[in-house]
Amino acid sequence: MIEIKELTKYYKNFCAVDKISLKIKKGEILGLLGPNGAGKTTTLRMLTGYFKPSAGSIKVNDYQIPDDLIQIKSLIGYLPESAPLYHNMLVYDYLEYVAKIKGLTDKEERFDRFLRLSDICGLSSIMAKPISDLSKGLRQRVGLAHAMMSDPEILILDEPTSGLDPNQIAEIRDIIKNIGQEKTIIFSTHILSEAEATCDRIAIINNGRIVANDTTTNLKSDLAQDSHIRISLTGPSEETALGFLQSIDPYFYIEPVHTLESDTVSFIIKHHGNKDLRSLIYLKIKETDWILCEMAKESLGLEEIFQRLTMEDA
């Protein structure tokens, strides 16, 4: 549905987006992740036609930017990080104003659309309230209703949960997942758990370049060789256990972990490679009189993957 090729954006001599290429399928929820200044917002603004690319191409269905900009904009609903709301208006009046701008001139058609958006975004109890009286989470819901007023095929959301509390984040996430059953959604976020719970696929951007583009499951699988083993022992001192574990394999990187149990020592054992070394460690410990309280293999989480990819590429 959306095909981006070698998309590039310069601000004078600074390259904010550097030859990004992506394909987004119809009905997919794509999360765009990256640290501050990575190029996420600039990329989204080029997708929506607000910024002109310095180079590269954007194709949506059979249309292409900049030749078919009006047609492409008609397919897209856009919610910027700060929703452009008129705070002195009632929610209903604001949505009616937006509907008229979007071409919904028929009164019954507008009313039906309001009912639908009110149900999707949870607005029924606040329709008669001034926007200035709403919490940020509720204002984001109104912004979502604005973006969806013309029933676009594509929704582009820039940091839709920025500044929200955990309950509001969960509410917006549920709305996005519900909308994603019918529409293609691209949204940027700093909240990794949100992307993992909501997205079909994530693209991690850093320094204007895509450094990862896959499902979270596949990303974790690709980095499974960098998993680590958590182990807890009762019996030895920390120094004795550390020396013993290091003697099993000198290439282990062993990191002590603080524990509240005074008679137990715990470690994270990191190693490179796909081989599962738990059986070897178990057999060596079995030769002692120590008690093995815990031994578990732990894979990298999305946060660790994000940090590794963005730090290595920095």
Overview of this structure, please?
This protein is α/β, with parallel strands linked by helices and 314 residues long. The chain has 2 domains: 2-215, P-loop containing nucleotide triphosphate hydrolases (Rossmann fold), CATH 3.40.50; 224-298, Alpha-Beta Plaits. It is built from 11 helices and 14 strands. The chain has helices spanning 40-47, 69-75, 91-101, 107-121, 136-147, 166-179, 192-198, 216-222, 238-248, 278-286, 302-312, and strands spanning 2-11, 14-24, 29-33, 55-60, 63-65, 76-79, 154-158, 184-189, 201-206, 209-214, 228-234, 253-257, 264-270, 291-298. A 6-stranded mixed beta sheet has the order 6-7-8-3-9-10, with helices on both faces. A hairpin with a 6-residue loop joins strand 12 (253-257) and strand 13 (264-270). It is elongated, with a radius of gyration of 25 Å. The two termini are 31 Å apart.
